[in-house]
Amino acid sequence: MKRSTPVILGLLLACSSTSFSQSANLTTWPKGASPQEVGKRVAARFVATPHTNFNRPTPPSVITYPETCAWYGALKFAKATGNDALKDDLIKRFEPMFTTEAKLIPPVTNVDWAVFGSVPLQLYMQTKDKRYLELGQGIADKQWAAPDEKAKAKVKPEQMLAFEKGYSWHTRMWIDDMFMITALQTQAYRATGDAKYINRAAKEMVLYLDSLQKPNGLFYHAPDVPFFWGRGDGWMAAGMAEILSSLPENNPDRARIMKGYKTMMASLLKYQAPSGLWRQLIDEPTAWEESSSTGMFTYAMVVGVKKGWLDKKTYTPAARKAWLGLVSYIDENADVKEVCEGTNKKNDKQYYLDRKRIVGDLHGQAPILWTAAALMN
């Protein structure tokens, strides 16, 4: 597979065992591979990208979650680098949501659509414009309020049972949920300081950990799908890093979440490919190396090293190797290669192995932006 040529030689040298042991840090990088350079390129690409419909040519009916997650990442990167011009561009992208593009705001009927609220909440924290707070907080509140009549028609009995036990009615026991729900509720906590939001997210995370995490630290895509799908596990890893970054030390669920996080990180070390990437099916040696899952695992690992949750001597080399491997998958247009297409659950191993490998899908751009911001912080 052809990769971006300007930095490839430096990246290959940086990933070699000799140079790697001599520069196992997260602060110095080969030319073209620093988080400042990479994040700026990928963020600019996002700004220039129209609203996308999972890489399909037809316009989306609402903002899709890959765009939401990339938008959120670009805002975090703008803040981490003090890039006011980028922040202004991201604000301009949002302004039509209050007028001509209001119809693109997703209704709060499922986790994939509700995560959109994390963007206006991030905008509020950076601008203090209360329009953003009202919109984002309203979405976070609806995720825990009883579903309206229109939404209720699509809610499954087990989801209503979860709601009656104090969980979100968006609960469906797919591991993807543990970024979507967690990002929104944690953002609402950060924006308002109201502990109910972070407490909700923590309770939900513990439910998923207790129900879905396997002894090896990884997660099946869903209880009835016994495969360790890369991006699904990536959502879980990123979600744990996201909530732990803001969860108060005295929260009763923190220890359980930290245990789940550390167990997963230790397992990921065992499955990292020599290139630094992780595979479409994490434990399948013949599976193709997939970039979006790698970005999410790299983000979770970088946050853990930076926060002191993970042993630096053990995890810094792995995180560095992952970042450099990931950067080599960015092409000359600042699009990420080898991104698994959007994937529903299916109890069929070959289904996962045969998923399309896309260039420029925002599933791949988003975690690069999260990670660039985390490295800058």
Automatic annotation (TrEMBL):
InterPro entries: 6-hairpin_glycosidase_sf (IPR008928), 6hp_glycosidase-like_sf (IPR012341), Glyco_hydro_88 (IPR010905), PolySaccharide_Degr_Enz (IPR052043). SUPFAM superfamilies: Six-hairpin glycosidases. It comes from the Bacteria. Gene3D superfamilies: 1.50.10.10. Coiled coil: none annotated. Keywords: Hydrolase, Signal. GO terms for biological process: carbohydrate metabolic process. The keyword RNA-binding does not apply. Residues 1-24 form the signal peptide. One of its GO terms (molecular function) is hydrolase activity. This is Glycosyl hydrolase. It comes from Pedobacter planticolens.
